[in-house]
TrEMBL record:
Pfam families: ABC_tran (PF00005)
UniProt-listed SMART domains: AAA
Listed PROSITE patterns: ABC_TRANSPORTER_1, ABC_TRANSPORTER_2
InterPro entries referenced in this protein's UniProt entry, alphabetically: AAA+_ATPase, ABC_transporter-like_ATP-bd, ABC_transporter-like_CS, P-loop_NTPase
Gene3D superfamilies to which the protein is assigned, alphabetical: P-loop containing nucleotide triphosphate hydrolases (3.40.50.300)
Top-rank taxon: Bacteria
Domain ABC transporter: 2-227
Record-given protein name: ABC-2 type transport system ATP-binding protein
Family label: Belongs to the ABC transporter superfamily.
């Protein structure tokens, strides 16, 4: 478990992290979401004792990082996948890390196997693709078999296969009961990967809740109805006070439960060609919840067009 209380970090005039309090539970993948410059990396560095807070504190399983006896056995992190000597092989890199942290050399082959790098373990890490480098970084994070794992933007620049692999791997780590904290500015990816979200903007906490709650609280859930007897259904729904948008071919109904709409159609002998819940997207939720945070919108706007998949509704 990770707990931050009133965490702040100032760099000169920039308040990178502003009085941030949150907790990250075990057994779940928690997404740490915010646009570029929101303060995610700074927060992660403070969790790992690499940056000193200007105010507040953060604890891992009740202890500050510097109080941990054998940090790599408690917390593992992937901050920068390219942080590896280019001429060292993957195995040599991990052996060096294991040795300098008094971890068993046997664990090196175990983690290489876990991340699927056994076959290339003796190749120069400098020649690795980004996806392979990310796997090597994850192997390093797992060396001490820690219960708490931090990943800073782990899918940045990866191809779809690499993204899928990371997503599945994170889920597996959480299913093993570990605390998995993953930062990203990619909305669609977090919608698929994270069960919980901590959302920040300009260093401040915007929301902490489950991904579903985040979308539900910020966007309206509606029901799409298609029928050859649309007019009949529309007037029946209207009589019951549902609010309806009609585009001529379908109705979008809000303020009424999907089961009730289906029952009403059956009672009126109306054939249905479609009756489907429409859920808001994580991106809509973002825009709704960040309100007048202009800087935040600008950053989202920058990120969205480059990632068409980010517009996918949650769960698709
Ligand atoms: N060492 C530093 N010195 C001065 N300013 C810094 C330093 N590190 C971060 N900042 C500033 O703090 C703010 C937060 O940066 P941070 O890298 O934590 O954001 P982020 O959410 O991780 O962004 P990204 O998604 O781009 O990695 C930014 O305004 C950044 O310019």
């Amino acid at each position: 478990m990770i707990e931050a209380e009133g965490l702040s970090k100032r760099y000169g005039k920039t308040l990178a992290v502003d009085n941030l309090s949150f907790s990250v539970q075990s057994g779940r993948v928690t997404g740490f979401l915010g646009p570029n410059g929101a303060g995610k990396s700074t927060t992660m560095r403070m969790i790992l004792g690499l940056d000193k807070p200007s105010g507040g504190n953060v604890r891992i399983d009740g202890k500050r990082y510097k109080e941990l006896h054998n940090p790599l056995r408690t917390v593992g992190a992937l901050l920068d996948a390219k942080w590896v000597h280019p001429n060292r092989s993957a195995r040599a890199h991990l052996r060096w890390l294991a040795k300098s942290n008094r971890l068993s050399p046997k664990r090196v082959d175990e983690v290489l196997d876990l991340v699927g790098l056994t076959d290339v373990a003796n190749r120069r890490a400098g020649g690795f693709s980004l996806g392979m480098s990310q796997r090597l970084g994850i192997a390093a994070a797992l060396l001490g078999d820690p219960q708490v794992l931090l990943f800073d933007e782990p899918v940045n620049g990866l191809d779809p296969e690499g993204i899928l692999w990371i997503r599945r791997f994170m889920h597996r780590l959480a299913e093993e009961g570990r605390t998995v904290f993953v930062s990203s500015h990619l909305l669609s990816e977090m919608a698929l990967t994270a069960q919980e979200l901590i959302v920040i903007g300009k260093g401040k906490l915007i929301s902490q809740c489950s991904t579903e709650e985040f979308v539900a609280q910020a966007t309206e859930n509606t029901v799409l109805v298609r029928s050859p007897q649309l007019a009949l259904l529309r007037s029946a729904l209207g009589e019951l006070g549902a609010s309806i948008r009609d585009d001529g071919e379908s109705l979008v109904v809000s303020g009424m439960d999907i089961a009730k709409i289906g029952e009403l159609a059956a009672a009126k002998n109306v054939a249905l060609h479609e009756l489907s819940p429409q859920r808001g997207s994580l991106e809509e939720a973002f825009i709704q919840l960040t309100g007048d945070a202009v800087e935040y919108h600008a950053a989202l706007g920058d990120a969205a067009p480059a990632q068409p998949a980010d517009l996918m509704p949650l769960g698709k």
